[in-house]
Amino acid sequence: AKACIETYHMSLQRGYKSLYNATIVVRFVGTSAGSTTSRLLMRSICRQLSRVYDKRETIPDDYAELVQYFKVCLFTWGTIHRPIVIFLDSLDHLSNDDNGLKLTWLPMKNLPHTLKLVVTTQPLTGERGEDLVCLRMIQAAMSKGSDASDATFIHVKPLELHEGQEMLDSW
Fold it and tell me: For residues 41 and 44, what is the distance between their CA atoms, to the nearest angstrom?
C-alpha cells in the first residue's frame, strides 16, 4: 500500500496532473479470491472498466482471448478526459496459473497516453533467498528495444512505524 501511495505522489510530481477525472483501478494482488491469478485479475479489471465506460460486452472465458480483450480495454477505452490509471500492488503474489508470473498478459511498453500503469513487486530475491521472478520479468520487458531507465523503477523501502502513523494522521 505504501508503494502505491508513494508512486501515485511521484507520478503527480512527474507531470501526470490530469488524474482528476481518471478511472482509478487498484488491486492488492493475492488478498482476495478475485486477485490470485492473472485470469481472475484481468476479468475483475475488465468488469470494473466496462461499468465505468458503459461497455456491455461479454468478457471472454478463453485465456488467449481474455488477454487480447484486456489489452483492448486498456488501450482503447481511456480518453484524454477520462484516462485509466491502474495500480497493481504485489504482483509477485499472483499464482503461476496460466504462467501469470511471466506477466506476458500485462502490457508494459508503448502504452497510450490515456493509460498509466503502476505495479509493485518484491525485489529479485525474497527474505529466504528464493528467486522472485516478477521484477526480472518487468525489467526484461521494459528493456527490450526501449529507452526505459532506472528512473522507471523506484525502490520503496519498508514503512517505518512512525510513517504509518503520519499517513493516518494526514488523512
Answer: 5
| pLDDT one-digit tens code per residue, 16-46 | 555 678 999 999 998 888 889 999 999 999 9
Beta bridge partners of 116: 85
Listed residue (36, 59, 37) closest to 47, CA to CA: 59
- Could you count the other beta carbons within 10 Å of the beta carbon of residue 149? 9
Given a contact cutoff of 8 angstroms between Cβ atoms, the answer to whether 91 and 134 are in contact is: yes
At residue 107, φ and ψ (nearest 5 deg) are: -70, 130
Name the nearest CA neighbour of 83 among 72, 71, 91, 74: 74
> Model's pTM, two decimal places?
0.78
Q: What is the rounded distance in angstroms from the CA atom of residue 61 to the CA atom of residue 59?
A: 7
Q: What is the DSSP string of 5-46?
A: HHHHHHHHHTT----TT-EEEEEETTSSGGGSSHHHHHHHHH
Instruction: Please state, in angstroms and as integers, the Cα–Cα distance from residue 20 to each residue in 2, 5, 13, 26, 115, following that order.
Output: 21, 16, 14, 16, 14
How far apart, in whole angstroms, are the C-alpha atoms of residue 73 and residue 83? Answer: 12
